[in-house]
Write a structure and sequence with these properties.
Length: 47
């Protein structure tokens, strides 16, 4: 069982991580970066 897990995890990572990054990172950046800038930059400038 342990041997099977060792062989599956790298395959899973190789196939899923790039797909996850391609789909999630742009959406994350589009949604989080503007919100981050709107909330942090004014506070940073005031301080």
């Amino acid at each position: 069982m342990k041997n099977k897990t060792r062989s599956c995890v790298p395959a899973f990572l190789r196939s899923c991580v790039p797909a996850f990054l391609r789909s999630c990172v742009p959406a994350f950046l589009r949604s989080c970066v503007p919100a981050f800038l709107r909330s942090c930059v004014p506070a940073f400038l005031r301080s």
